Amino acid sequence: MYLFRGEFGCMLYTGDFRWEPTNTRAQIGRSMLHNAIGNDKVDILYLDNTYCNPSYSFPSREVAAKQVVDVIASHPDHDIVIGIDSLGKEDLLLHIARVLKMKIWVWPERLQIMHLLGFHDIFTTKISQTRVRAVPRYSFSIDTLEGLNIMRPTIGIMPSGLPWVVRPFEGNNNIFGLSPSSFHHRSKLSAKAQSFACIQNLNEDSRAVEKYHEYIYTVPYSDHSCFEEIKEFVKLVRPTNMKGIVASSFSYVDPLYYFGRLLGANLQSKRLNQNFERKGGERVEAVHTKSTLENDNSAEARMKRKTREGDLLGVHVSRVSILRRIRCGAKILELD
């Protein structure tokens, strides 16, 4: 995280972060954050709001990593393909390598990154040395897994906190000797993927491993905080104001909608005056402006309409547009 102090006040930028209460590293980070802030009040918090929605609840990375290992161990005769990004999930891959005592294949560019991070003896680009491969997320698909299974039994694992598909997989549900606990409706994917998904509990205290296809599992492993972790972090920092650093996502909600009541008194009073709600502030402004202009098309009304426009870097932007951009979170402003 980055903490800035100056004439502008005290600003805290989280970047992507995971606030796990039981994790030893998180406890060290909590202590470091306390010492860094000291007695200062954080005037504005730029928050990782990737999962800023109560629907996102998943276990700690320690639990999720164990789930990944359990899936791999339950398929001793299969090759394993794990979908990852160009950066991130290193701790998960290290855990798999350490517990299963095997190297992990990565593509050449990813191997260079691993070497830069100091991991020299755990990863390889030689397929013959391991049955576990970490592949780019964009290449992880049902078609890919079906093609690989023509040559050799292979399963895919997608570590992610995001939901994947819509309908449950209607195959053998008793993969780990446990019956499926529930089914979830998911976001749109491809028509092919929508006919698959099944949910199975590996741990009573965590979100289930989900089987979305005959060859594909997803495990709720994420380097972003879930909703409850974000809430605990905001309670601890108690900033005067905050903005989300993710301006668009699967189910984007301005963090003020859920956590505004946890902020300082000054912002609370401002929010009461604004009558803020999930999209209400923007909608009220738009409706109010529209009704005023529709009811009065006089020259005076046209003059008032012009005064409602803000002059930003020489370009006129409507008040509604400005408010919309402000409430979408911290991002580079695009001019209409």
TrEMBL record:
Signal peptide: none annotated. Its main location: nucleus. Gene3D superfamilies: 3.40.50.12650. One of its GO terms (cellular component) is nucleus. One of its GO terms (molecular function) is endonuclease activity. Keywords: DNA damage, DNA recombination, DNA repair, Endonuclease, Exonuclease, Hydrolase, Nuclease, Nucleus. It is found in: Nucleus. It comes from the Eukaryota. Residues 173-242 form the DNA repair metallo-beta-lactamase domain. GO terms for biological process: DNA recombination; double-strand break repair via nonhomologous end joining; interstrand cross-link repair. InterPro entries: DRMBL, RibonucZ/Hydroxyglut_hydro. PANTHER family: DNA CROSS-LINK REPAIR PROTEIN PSO2/SNM1-RELATED, PROTEIN ARTEMIS. Belongs to the DNA repair metallo-beta-lactamase (DRMBL) family. This is Protein artemis. It comes from Actinidia rufa.
